[in-house]
Structures are given as structure tokens and as C-alpha cells.
Amino acid sequence: MESRRRRQPALAPDERRAALIAATIPLLHEHGTEVSTRQIAHAAGVAEGTIFGVFQNKNELVVCSVVKALDPQPVLDALDAIDRSAPLRDRLREAAEIVHTRFERNAGLMHAARRLFIAGESSPEAQHQMTSTRGKLLAAVTAVLEPDTDRLRITPAEAARLLLLYCGANTFGPFGEGDAFNGAELASLLLDGILLSDSGEQATC
């Protein structure tokens, strides 16, 4: 006898929404926003109609899942945990690796979020949340650089913005290749530029 797919127990609406979002996120990484409600229902172990009991439509579920998947808090926590007493180069290298890894892992979802926003398919709340994420990342990287403010020829915020631009462009810019540069190389580019010093060696901080 063919085995039947085990159904999930009844959940409160908020719990059901969270469970469906959790099931959708891996599918978005695999299939993008073209994932079907049938695939989502199968992954969540529910009937397809269950989705529409807690979400107005598939698009609402996709938007909520993209926002959840791009939640910046784990990255913000990792940046906050960087030892501020460590040398500038070490701190910046660690920050660059953290940011670059986030961008590389979520490049597809970031593209999807941009398409949803441009198409006007996301709620104002979702757009605000995504916009605020950029500000939080900028502030977190700025804080990593601030102990060495006196050694920088630009402000920590300007340097942080450049690092985010480097990491973003390397990951999903028109000339980006995710494995072309790692975080340490991007940090060195920011600190040293592309010229050798007069001695023929890279400058050190």
C-alpha cells in the first residue's frame, strides 16, 4: 500500500504562518519566486488550501519568506561580536567575510526582493523592513571601524559604505563573481588600494 504523506497537526494561525514561511525559504533558494504552492504545501506537510487560510495568496507568502530569510539580525550579532581591541586590519577582514558571506548566500533572494519591490508586489511594511536592513548593516560595519577613526582619511561611515559596495558588487553586480574575491581581499583593497608602496610591498595597518 502506498504510504500517505504525514500531515502536520493543527496549529494556531501565527504558528501556521511561521511553519509555512520556514518551509518556503529553502524552496526559494532552490526554485526562486517561481516555487509553486503545491511544492510549498508538500514541504510543509499540509494541504495546499491550508496556505490560503493564513495568507491571502502565494505572493504574500513569498514576500514574507524573503523578508524572513534576509533577516539581518544574525549578521548584526556577528559584527557586534568582533573584538574592537583587535588590529584594524583584522577587524575589517572579519567584517568583510561576514558581510560577503551573507551577500553570497542570499544573492538570489536579494535579486528576488528587488524584483518584487520594483513590480509593486510587496507591502509597504516589507519594503520598509528591507530598507532599514541596509541602514542597520551600514551602522554595524561603521561601529567596527570607529575605534580607528583618527587613522582613516575618510569617515568610518564612508569606509563602511565602500566595503558594503565592494561586497555587494562582487556578489551580484554586473561584473561580480562570488568567488572572485574573498572578504579578506576586499578588506585589503579598501585599506591598501591597488598600488604598491614605494618599497614595492603592500602597506600595512
From TrEMBL:
Keywords: DNA-binding, Transcription, Transcription regulation
This protein's record includes keyword Plastid: no
Family annotation (SUPFAM superfamilies): Homeodomain-like (SSF46689)
InterPro entries, A to Z: Homeodomain-like_sf, HTH-type_TetR-like_transc_reg, HTH_TetR
Domain HTH tetR-type: 14-73
DNA-binding region positions on the chain: 36-55
Any one GO molecular-function label of the UniProt entry: transcription cis-regulatory region binding
This protein's name: AcrR family transcriptional regulator
